[in-house]
Amino acid sequence: MTEEKKEEIKEEEGKIEESEVKEEVKEGIEEAPAEEVKEIVNVPTEEISKVPKELVEESAVIEKWKPKTSLGKAVIEGKITNIDEILESGKKIRESEIVDKLLPDLKSELILIGGRAGKGGGAQRTPIRITAKMHSSGRRFRISSFVVVGNENGLVGIGKGSSAETRVAMGKSLKKAKMNLIKIKRGCGSWECGCGTEHSIPYKIKGKSGSVRVELLPAPKGVGLVANNESKKIFKLAGIKDIWMQSLGNTSNLINLMYAIFDALKKLYVYER
Q1: What is the pLDDT of residue 32?
Q2: How much of the chain is helix, strand and coil, in % rounded to 5?
Q3: Strands (DSSP E) along 151-256, which ranges?
């Protein structure tokens, strides 16, 4: 056998080995993560927008809480007994347990920021958004969650969290929402109503985030929340019963839409001061 033929045989064997390795890597990349995604996205349709009770109960446990900030120590010692004292002073809340201590009846809801293919076509909204990054070992998934909290009486907060696990991501977003709590000014700014009660907002206000622009208008009593379903959650938890909302930009990005609404509501309290 000549040397040329030996070299050709070695090259063919090398190609066969490379193709086998590529197939194994391809199987590891495509097949394994698909099962993980199926488990992650398998969220029950009932109460899909509710934060799991286990997470709410875990975050509300303050018996084992050891405050690290001066504000937290003042709350646990009883020097501060009202959340309004903190918000009016302008101090930043660094521990979510402060809100749990002062507002034990705080309500929370998930924003459906994710989506997957529906059974009859179109898209089905999910409370988690999954993003994937490609590595040499395969795909690595990142899960994001968005939570809104409020007492339905002028206090509202939003938070976004991400992690490799759904439970951890929801827990992070719940804590961030509590630490981002703000006070808003309500009133009756519609010339059609003039009742003087706190069922709407006192005046027109604008907010923005990314490409999304939002304009909130006071509405007369009985109109309700004229907005999409996800935006209604933040208005409801803030204690607003009647409002008109106009939005521009890429409103399909619900994260930017929520931030734009929150930016507008935040300005109500800023202008009050």
Answers
A1: 36
A2: 40, 25, 35
A3: 155-163, 182-183, 205-209, 212-218, 225-226, 243-248
